[in-house]
């Protein structure tokens, strides 16, 4: 699949670009992870890995935590793949600033013809700020959904910040972020290389969730706004 190859190239580029930084322990530490003063919120359309995939990712994170206990590892409840970030998380955003029903209606309209799709989670890659599990959709359905959502929201009068940070082209799941400098970059990198092509499992995506969320998608801060079923 052409799209799958393009996605693989993006993951590989991330790995190659950040490998030299990880070797010397140069990672982006997020001070807000420990401050308790993070008020960045937004609206996101996402789906969550199933139980088996979460369990597999959890085993990987336990190994990382033994090496780097001071970092932030996503609990199973918070793991997700972003379909599209409609309003990127920013300080001070709250739901009383928007008409939630209009957002839910436009998402449902945009996905009226969408179908369920398979996705495989295979291998990991790295960014300056965290560790990602690579997702590979089995069809072009995710790309089609994203394009339809972009077109409809950009032509609407609803507040949106689509693609303001970057144009989302992958199907990754962020699993770890950095709260502190690395203790032992060499050992961490060795473990990451062990999992570079590890198979975490596959699943069918049969529903997507529209949520109001904080930057890290913490369960106790996420509010579900709508659920859209994807028929087979």
TrEMBL record:
Q: Has UniProt tagged this entry with the keyword Ligase?
A: yes
**Molecular function via GO:** ligase activity
Q: Which domain of life is it from?
A: Bacteria
- Quote the InterPro entries the UniProt record gives: Cyclic_Pdiesterase (IPR009097)
- What are the alphabetically sorted keywords of the record? Ligase
Q: What is this protein called?
A: 2'-5' RNA ligase
- Origin organism of this chain? Pontibacter akesuensis
Where is the organism placed in the taxonomic lineage, from the top? Answer: Bacteria, Pseudomonadati, Bacteroidota, Cytophagia, Cytophagales
């Amino acid at each position: 699949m052409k799209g799958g190859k393009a996605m693989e190239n993006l993951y590989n580029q991330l790995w190659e670009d950040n490998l030299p930084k990880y070797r010397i322990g140069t990672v982006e530490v997020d001070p807000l992870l420990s401050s308790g003063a993070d008020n960045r919120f937004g609206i996101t359309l996402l789906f969550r890995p199933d139980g088996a995939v979460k369990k597999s990712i959890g085993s990987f994170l336990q190994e990382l935590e033994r090496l780097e206990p001071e970092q932030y590892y996503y609990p199973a409840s918070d793991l997700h793949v972003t379909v599209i970030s409609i309003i990127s998380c920013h300080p001070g955003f709250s739901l009383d600033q928007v008409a939630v029903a209009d957002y839910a209606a436009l998402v449902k309209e945009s996905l009226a013809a969408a179908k369920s799709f398979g996705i495989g989670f295979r291998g990991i890659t790295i960014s300056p700020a965290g560790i990602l599990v690579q997702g590979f959709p089995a069809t072009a359905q995710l790309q089609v959904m994203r394009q339809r959502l972009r077109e409809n929201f950009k032509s609407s009068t609803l507040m949106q910040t689509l693609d303001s940070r970057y144009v989302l082209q992958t199907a990754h799941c962020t699993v770890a972020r950095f709260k502190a400098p690395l203790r032992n970059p060499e050992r961490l990198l060795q473990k990451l290389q062990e999992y570079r092509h590890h198979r975490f499992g596959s699943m069918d995506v049969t529903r997507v969730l529209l949520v109001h969320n904080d930057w890290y998608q913490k369960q106790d801060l996420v509010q579900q706004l709508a659920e859209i079923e994807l028929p087979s």
